[in-house]
Amino acid sequence: MSTQHNQFDRRDSALLKEQRGEASYTARKRDTLLSFQLTYWYLKMPVVRALSKVAKKALLAPVCGCQVSAVAVRHVSFSPRQVTSASDASFHSVSFSETDHPKVLITGGLGQLGVGLAKLLRKRFGKNNVILSDIRKPPTHVFHSGPFIYSDILDYKNLREIVVNNRITWLVHYSALLSAVGEANVPLARAVNITGLHNILDIAAEHGLRLFVPSTIGAFGPTSPRNPTPDLCVQRPRTIYGVSKVHAELMGEYYHHRYGLDFRCLRYPGIISADSQPGGGTTDYAVQIFHDAVKTGKFECNLKPDTRLPMMYIDDCLRATLEVMEAPVETLSMRTYNINAMSFTPDELAQEVQKQLPDLQVTYNIDPVRQAIADSWPMNFDDSNARNDWSWKHDYDLPELVQTMLNFIGSDSQVAQAS
Ligand SMILES: NC(=O)C1=CN([C@@H]2O[C@H](COP(=O)(O)OP(=O)(O)OC[C@H]3O[C@@H](n4cnc5c(N)ncnc54)[C@H](O)[C@@H]3O)[C@@H](O)[C@H]2O)C=CC1
Ligand SMILES: CC(=O)[C@H](N)C(=O)O
Fold first, then answer.
1. pLDDT tens digits, residue range 347-362?
2. Residue 213 near residue 265, CB atoms below 8 Å
3. How many A from CA of 247 to the centre of ligand 1?
4. What is the largest distance, in Å, between two alpha-carbon atoms of the chain?
5. Cβ of 376 less than 6 Å from ligand 1
6. Which atom of ligand 2 is least distant from the CA of 179?
7. What average pLDDT does range 172-192 have in this prediction?
8. Which ligand has the shortest distance to the CA of 271?
9. What is the pLDDT of residues 275-293, one digit of tens each?
10. Which atom of ligand 2 has the smallest separation from the CA of 182?
11. CA-to-CA distance for 32 and 154, rounded, in angstroms?
């Protein structure tokens, strides 16, 4: 790569910053207007109105943390709110020790994956070297477990201030609206998943950060090979979530080639976790079944019994993320990798749970939006490049996953009943 392409060009960067001062106001005005126009269109279109039912359902569902955040974003994301976090940011920076450890910022850190990742990275790099951020208020235990800071990824100056004041070297970009929630609010998904990503890419390139952006099985569509799906093939997803993730993969790789940005991306399958709730995706059923099985002995599944999707236990997902971030650059023959652990259908998962809880009753009430999404996604994921290049290997298959989830949720509900 030529030196002139090696770095984000300083002139480009200065120009970009200058333009942002003006552009951000105009862009905000334009975005607000667009948001109104799209909301009007959204209310008028019968098909989209039908989708809003999905949103309402998700909003009322106790498992769906993201709807709360989606409402919060609507209030704050287009406002000209300026950063109040400068003092917070420098407060956090004073406690950093001067070691070789990366200084990590995780955006969208209060979702299903962020808190677990912070825990893993803090174990490795030290508590104060990993800052969680989000636009939501952190629960008490998260707030007291290490540095937390407010950060709206649509606020470019706020992001830059946090990166500069805390001397961030690694950025893990988790903020997103997932597949089902994204279909229910396309304008918001477009803003967070696409405009937000542009801010992240520019900041990472300007400040020489190592950037991790997760992609998903949802970055593939009905015309992709589905069984198995390789790293490189046709990608024509039919959701705004998938479209935004293909965009992220391509933009990240472009910034890598054009500016030398150290961009790393894993396409995650559906992630299953016991102590954090999914944020409104198509694979959420595979988490909810465990909670319902333990608490009520009944589960109503919103996908057909034979819908096969790739899945992974959260510990494998977070370890893969750390491993690819630490992988020596010469081992990476690509910048975007599929990773996988297992594939199963709701029926197969239910049967495995019933081995432990034979009284579990499973019924099916198909959500057409989620079913259409699932039918367009990979059934099996080919992750041989990750396995060959940086020795990716999963630990959890279906039986271990089920055992671990039931142990965790079972012991948790016993504690709750006792107290
Ligand atoms: N959980 C899964 O099964 C999978 C997740 N991924 C990806 O991993 C990443 C993390 O996923 P989850 O934790 O499950 O997502 P989540 O939906 O649980 O959390 C996303 C977080 O982003 C935050 N957010 C929304 N708008 C924001 C804004 N303007 N500024 C800052 N933060 C904002 C929300 O408050 C929320 O806490 C996402 O990019 C997702 O696409 C990919 C494949 C599978
Ligand atoms: C697989 C994903 O990206 C996510 N869990 C979703 O279902 O939207």
1. 999 999 999 999 999 9
2. yes
3. 16
4. 66
5. no
6. 8
7. 98
8. 1
9. 999 999 999 999 999 999 9
10. 8
11. 13
ipTM over 0.90: yes
Catalytic residue, chosen from 150, 156, 174, 241, is 241
Pick 26 or 262 by higher pLDDT: 262
Tell me the torsion sign for CA atoms 301, 306, 309, 315. Answer: positive
Tokens for 303, please give them.
Answer: 């996908």
Where are the domains positioned within the chain? 1-45, 176-418
Beta strands in 136-188, from DSSP E residues, in sequence order: 148-150, 170-173
Distances (CA, A) of 219 to 34, 214, 245, 268, 387: 25, 11, 6, 10, 20
Answer whether residue 94 shows pLDDT above 60. no
| DSSP 8-class letter at 78 | T
What are the CA-CA distances from residue 148 to residues 60, 68, 129, 169 (Å)? Answer: 27, 19, 11, 17
Tokens at 346, concatenated? 């709701």
Nearest Cα to Cα of residue 170 among 216, 117, 218, 91:
117
Q: Which of 69, 107, 203, 342 to mutate to test the pocket of ligand 1 (most atoms within 8 A of CB)?
A: 69
Q: Is 255 one of the annotated active-site residues of the chain?
A: no
Centre of ligand 1 to C-alpha 326, Å, is 22
Give this prediction's pTM: 0.81
Is domain 176-418 classified as CATH 3.40.50.720?
yes
What is residue 418's predicted lDDT score, i.e. its pLDDT? 59
Residue list, ligand 2 pocket, CB within 6 Å: 178-179, 216-218, 241, 270, 281-283
Q: Give the strand pairing for 309-313 and 298-301.
A: unpaired
Taking the centre of ligand 2 as the mean of its atom positions, its distance from the CA of residue 112, in whole angstroms, is: 11
Q: Which residue has the higher pLDDT, 31 or 88?
A: 31
Q: Whose CA is nearest to atom 9 of ligand 1?
A: 174
The residue nearest atom 6 of ligand 2, judged by CA position, is: 281
Per-residue model confidence as pLDDT tens digits over 367-413: 999 999 999 999 999 999 999 999 999 999 999 999 999 999 987 76
DSSP-assigned beta bridge partners for residue 381: 229
Nearest alpha-carbon partner for 298 in 367, 366, 365, 359: 359
Is the CB of 281 within 6 Å of ligand 1?
Answer: yes
The burial class, CB within 10 Å (0-12 / 13-18 / 19+), for 365 is: exposed
Half-sphere exposure of 262 (CA within 13 A, CB side): 16
Place of tokens 């010469």: 330
CB atoms within 10 A of CB 184: 27
Do residues 34 and 41 make contact, with C-beta atoms less than 8 angstroms apart?
Answer: no
Of residues 21 and 417, more confidently modeled: 417
